[in-house]
Amino acid sequence: MFSENVEIVLTKINNALAMRKETKKTGETVTLVAVTKNHPADVIRASMALGIVNIGENRVQEAKLKKTVVQNGPRWHLLGHLQTNKVKQAVEIFDIIESVDSEKILAAIDKAAEQQGKVQDVLLQLNIAEEAQKSGFDKESYEAVIPELKNFKNVRIRGIMVIAQKCEDVEETRPVFKKGYEKFCELQQYLGDAHVDILSMGMTHDYWIAVEEGANSVRIGTALFGERDYGR
Ligand SMILES: *Cc1c(COP(=O)(O)O)cnc(C)c1O
In whole angstroms, what is the distance from residue 171 CA to residue 47 CA? Predict the structure, then answer.
């Protein structure tokens, strides 16, 4: 059943790639990040057995526990909002932090990475859908951080992460993803840097739209593993 879900998702991604109307600067392949939050570590092993090596988690503590039991490490992606007091551990655990949503957190990650002798891969999360409850840089704070980015020597800015609003008609997410792609191209040009190569957009309810609009990394939980049980 799980392997069928993976097949369905991969097929939908490929169909979306074929639907693109123009060549995108994000390339022709899409990374599937399996979001295993609120699922047991077994789910990570099952994913890896099917060749999925990118695993997304929302919480530092949960990922830390799972990392101690999962062998032959996958690539760990942090997707959830990060608090300053968890930064040190996050830098220890995650290969990439996708949810950098303030200059303050970026500075804290830079400092922790320096102390750990690591260059930390990060994405800047942009709040394009502008929902009050969602985290991410808003327009103003993003414009303010851009000129500072080159000062952080211990982080590698790999690109942008976007979460679309939930809506009844999935087509309503398209302008958000279009904007995300524009912002990615701007960032790539601004940093003039081959390291800017990841545009993480799209979840279970909208990933094919995101891929059509240029996403090259999608974060998918429910479509792979079913509904999450938050009572666990
Ligand atoms: C939980 C989560 C996902 C996966 O959501 P699904 O709708 O289950 O695919 C993706 N991205 C982020 C940031 C998340 O928090």
Answer: 29
**pLDDT tens by residue, 173-206:** 999 999 999 999 999 999 986 799 999 999 999 9
Q: What is the pLDDT of residues 140-165, one digit of tens each?
A: 999 999 999 999 999 999 999 999 99
What residues does ligand 1 touch, defined as CB less than 6 Å away? Answer: 35, 37, 58, 79-80, 163, 203-204, 219-223
Which of these, 180, 229, 184, lies nearest to 203 by C-alpha position?
180
Q: Which of 35, 39, 229 to mutate to test the pocket of ligand 1 (most atoms within 8 A of CB)?
A: 35
Domain hosting 136: range is 2-223
Q: Is residue 228 part of a domain?
A: no
